[in-house]
Amino acid sequence: MEKRIFITKKWCFILVDLDNIKNIAVIGAGIMGSGIAQVALLTGYEKVTVIDPNTETLHNSRKIIKDRIEALESEENYKSFISAYYATNEIMKNIDIKRELDNFESVGIIAHNIDTKTIINRLKTETDLSKGVADANFVIEAVPENLELKQKIFKALGELSPPYTILASNTSSISITKIAQFSGRSEKVIGMHFHTFFPILGMLIEITPGKNSSNESLEIGRAIAQKFPCLTGKRFTVQLEKETAGLIANRISIPAQIYFDWLIDYATDSGFSIDQLGALNMIFGLADAIGLDTIYNILRYFEKYVSPDFAPGKNLTRLVEAGMVGKKIGKGYIEWNENGSMKKSPSLDEKATEFLMPHLDAEIFSAISLNEACRLLEEGVVKSYRLIDKVIFKGTSMPGPFREGKAKYKEWAKKLYDVAEKTGKSYFKPCNMMESGKFLSLR
Questions:
Q1: Does domain 249-359 have CATH number 1.10.1040.50?
Q2: pTM of the model
Q3: Based on C-alpha coordinates, what's the Rg of the chain?
Q4: Where is 24: in which H helix or E strand?
């Protein structure tokens, strides 16, 4: 295999030439790992190996990947797949698949008439990490958000994968420097976060450096990410100037979880049950889809490394400790059927709704998002507020916080002082960059 030697001021090491990256390994066969493996296969890599210690999980992952890829063979297959598995997903239902089938950026090598049998034959599964990464040119880790688990995996990867292999983590919140700490090759470790648990639908991928990540590793990671097909629009990758908890998109959205946790606990402390809080069904549904255990672990990480105000709420903690972690097991805040539809959701209790509504002012959440986006500018994670708005739009299809915030930051700052007082969480107070309007100069 041809290799290219890069020499920089800090490093002298061997990397695989981008054109010679043939084998991708994905660690973790859950929803996220399966989705990453799908887009890697559709990109055209010769071998994609999904690694997981659980054989049943691997079996289910292979089936998911096979079904999703076969769904892209034709318009008929796609419609049948949607009606069977994703009937309630409006994004997937509204895709004009007939138009996308001849577009490589949308469906990958299927657009080049590579048959799905050939593609699926390139998928391998492996329970033994050493065998799974023995010839991998690029590895993407997609295991739960637990620092110790990730450190253990990357230590093993540093010992077991070829010396030229780049090691990427799909972490949405954890420091790449900390993840790479025991890898023995921190210059090869980068972050590659897919901003949706169904990567072929999400345009946004965030590339994050650790303190020692080489420019070459980051550039190759970003180039690989940019090639992954996406059904909903042109793939969009962004590289952070430096690492931060939560990256860009999640960092801006996570503080709202503190507020939701406070509001849910405030309602139940006031005598209402979860089953009465139907006004929060959209919030409950999203949390259950992400996974309450994932949210809990992220909040614990933020509690330790960002602010104690991120400590998970009482109701979230109770559900996680009881194993009711969301859609993937059929029960979280909401009860779910196997096809992904709601079995039973909290009801719209009139008194509970009346109690909640004063606390659901949409501008509260806009203010929280703007404040966190301004913190990213203060920290030098991003240099332009326009880029932040673009990242949010590509990741969520919603306007970024600066669109309205440019005109409303003064009144939103006052709202945040009120929120900090009623919740008892000082983290909600506006930062200097927001309150002063200094962000306006960072276009």
A1: yes
A2: 0.90
A3: 22
A4: strand 23-27
Residue-wise pLDDT tens digits, 201-255 = 999 999 999 999 999 999 999 999 999 999 999 999 999 999 999 999 999 999 9
Task: Give the domain ranges of the chain.
Answer: 3-239, 249-359, 362-441
Class of domain 3-239: alpha beta
Tokens encoding 104: 């490589």
Best CA proximity match to 145, nearest among 171, 107, 169:
171
Pick among 1.10.1040.10, 3.30.565.10, 3.30.70.260, 1.10.10.10: CATH of 362-441: 1.10.1040.10
Domains 249-359 and 362-441 fall in the same CATH topology: yes
248 and 382 in contact (C-beta within 8 Å)?
A: yes
The rounded distance, in Å, linking the Cα atoms of 225 and 192 is: 8
Rounded to whole angstroms, the Cα distance separating 217 from 10 reads 13
Q: Are 322 and 274 in contact (CB under 8 A)?
A: no
Cα distance between residue 164 and residue 186, in whole Å: 12
The pLDDT tens digits of the residues spanning 55-100 come to: 999 999 999 999 999 999 999 999 999 888 787 788 888 999 999 9
What pLDDT band is residue 9 in, cutting at 50, 70 and 90?
A: very low
Pairing type for strands 123-126 and 47-51 reads: parallel
User: What would the two tokens of residue 295 be?
Assistant: 């949210």
Q: Are 442 and 377 in contact (CB under 8 A)?
A: yes
Does pLDDT of 41 surpass 50? Answer: yes
